[in-house]
Predict the 3D structure of the following.
Amino acid sequence: MSTSPRKTLIAANWKMYKTPDEAVAFVRSFIPLIGHHRHAEIVLCPSPTMLATVVDAARNNPIHVAAQNMHWLDQGAYTGETSPLQLKALGVTHVLIGHSERRQYFNETDESVNLKLKAALVHGLIPIVCVGEMLAEREANQTTEVLERQTSIALGGIDPAAAHPLVIAYEPVWAIGTGRTATPEIADDAHKVIRAEIARSLSPEVAAGTRILYGGSVKPDNTASLCCLEDIDGALVGGASLDPASFAQIVANSAT
Ligand code: PGA
């Protein structure tokens, strides 16, 4: 059993899936399935069009709602963007920042991740900052360098005293949606690299308190072997989070 003081966090990244009706149906089926699990902070990350609906459906239940992305400014002429103020007004509590799909397809950079992280902390949104190497980078032995770079730039200029809500998700890009999960050893090594970088960039105290999630083909049957490790504090789940029974099983299996 892990002795970590960090509360497990299990997040469902629904990406561009589900309609509002399907999201409500998910929440209704999911709630009775997780009734007795209080060991984990459970977070659902729906598309922006469903944030209010999911906040509403989950009200008075131990389920938090995250946006999958946001802009860093409070308001402005930025067509198609959503601001932290707008998310807060909906009752959203968490936000994914720098998911690899945003880095790959929507020009998200380490610098924009840093701006978004600062904005989340200012507005009291719990940031889940995603980092992770591409397959070519792993094969070229650049994993440590990539994780250190992504983490240190994300954390640039952040006051360690204000950083305690920080959550990092280690998502090796080669494991996302591929069915190819990182072995617990690979994930644990990466989490140690990230925690050491947080200690260098912010402080050893912040590093010790920061939750680092693993993401990339997490399924009910590999959750326990990942979540039992000392440096893995939960999971960011894509495909296996779309079904309420599968996601509830992941929550249950994370209680290691
Ligand atoms: P996956 O996605 O679980 O489908 O690999 C994880 C993610 O992209 O957050």
In short: The chain has eleven helices and eight strands. The first strand starts at residue 8 and ends at 13. The two ends are 5 Å apart (CA to CA). The pocket of 2-phosphoglycolic acid is lined by residues 13, 171, 176-177, 215-218, 236-240 (CB under 6 Å).
